[in-house]
Specification:
The complex is a heterodimer of chains A (155) and B (166). Chain A is mainly beta and 155 residues long. Chain A contains 2 helices and 10 strands, in the order αββαββββββββ. Chain B has 166 residues and is mainly beta. Chain B has one domain. Chain B has 2 helices and 12 strands; from the N terminus they run H-E-E-H-E-E-E-E-E-E-E-E-E-E. In chain B, the strands form 3 sheets. In chain B, strands 10-9-8-11-12 form a 5-stranded antiparallel sheet, with no helix packed on it. The longest helix of chain B is centred in the N-terminal third of the chain and has 12 residues. The chains are: A mainly beta (155), B mainly beta (166). At the A-B interface, strand 1, strand 2 and helix 2 of A face strand 1, strand 2 and helix 2 of B. Strand 1 of chain A pairs antiparallel with strand 2 of chain B, so a sheet runs across the interface.
Chain lengths: 155, 166
């Protein structure tokens, strides 16, 4: 006799529905907060280590090379170069996109940092090392998020 | 901004700092399986049911479709009375949300009559003085009215001392 033999009325089977409440609040922190607030003003902010001169974008509180606290804020130009990229064909829910998007890690000019963002270029036109420039949302639409930068495009 | 990292922000300060709020949708469905489904459906009818293993002769309660002693499927459904014996108990001065309370909640494990040793269910006790709660006390289930039952272990409201007991 197997267990499966006995199952004659599946409607008798019970199940328990649950919902785990795992809400959280993530603050952007002492270094992250001014970075996002300045994005709202259309500026990209970094921090510069007084000891080694390394410029962190996005801003960091501590220099990972020197282990010292960084207090010097610097505004960085809003252009950079494509360090690496990928062509994306599906959205975050794995639905096929109408048009493929290009996402890249952009190294910001004159700094040692950068971030991942969308490129407004055709997949066949992108190449590593190409210069790009940040395009911000219109002032009233900005909300202090990384998405205040709409995308990067060729200057 | 706070002077030290790791300090808790007040709700006023929270308005001034950039932050993300998120509530992940962590829904789940837990299937009760054959034995537990029957157990819950019988609770709705106001009955307790166990499973008997013909090899070791044990009556397993709450029921299981598999005997973990004999490594074989159990054989038979058996109805059990809604009376039992207090095996262990606790007086809780904290409620379910860990808030302090004045009147203790009485909880414990009840060995149901007719089930084999070392088996029982955890439940509440009521209609008794906390001082009278003791190991070996005979108790009886107090059920919700039939129309309020939903096939949950809370269809039993609590256990009270059996008639004739203190």
């Amino acid at each position: 006799m197997t267990f499966v033999d006995r199952i004659e009325r599946p409607e008798d089977f019970r199940h328990w529905l649950g919902d785990m409440e795992a809400e959280y609040v993530y603050t952007s922190g002492i270094a992250g907060d001014p970075f996002l607030k300045e994005l709202k003003k259309g500026k990209i902010l970094g921090t510069k280590c007084d000891n080694c001169g390394k410029v962190y974008v996005p801003s960091r509180m501590y220099c990972e090379e020197c282990f010292v606290e960084i207090t010097r804020w610097v505004e960085v130009p809003n252009d950079g170069i494509v360090d690496t990229y990928t062509v994306v064909h599906v959205d975050r829910d794995e639905n096929l996109l109408e048009k493929p998007e290009v996402w890249a890690f952009i190294r910001m000019e004159g700094t040692d940092g950068g971030f991942v963002h969308k490129l407004n270029v055709l997949p066949e036109d992108v190449n590593i090392g190409m210069p790009v420039k940040a395009v911000f949302k219109s002032k009233k639409d900005r909300e202090g998020r990384i998405t205040d930068i709409l995308y990067f495009e060729k200057p | 901004m706070k002077k030290f990292a790791g300090e808790r922000l007040s709700s006023e300060e929270m308005k001034e700092v950039t932050h993300e709020e998120w509530a992940p949708a962590v829904k789940y469905a837990w299937s009760c399986g054959e034995a537990m489904s029957r157990f819950l459906n019988e609770l709705k009818k106001g009955k307790l049911i166990g499973r008997k293993c013909h090899k070791c002769k044990r009556v397993i309660f709450p029921p299981k479709m598999f005997c973990e002693f004999c490594f074989r499927p159990t054989d038979e459904w058996v109805y059990l009375p809604d009376t039992g014996t207090v095996m262990t108990y606790s007086l809780s001065y904290l409620d379910k949300d860990a808030r302090r309370i004045e009147e203790p909640i009485l909880v414990g494990v009840i060995a149901i009559d007719g089930a084999s040793e070392h088996m029982g269910i955890m439940h509440y006790f009521s209609e008794m003085d906390p001082d009278d709660l003791d190991f070996g006390l005979k108790v009886k289930a107090v059920w919700k009215p039939e129309k309020e039952r939903e096939g949950s272990v809370t269809d039993i409201k609590y256990f009270k001392p059996l008639e004739g007991e203190k």
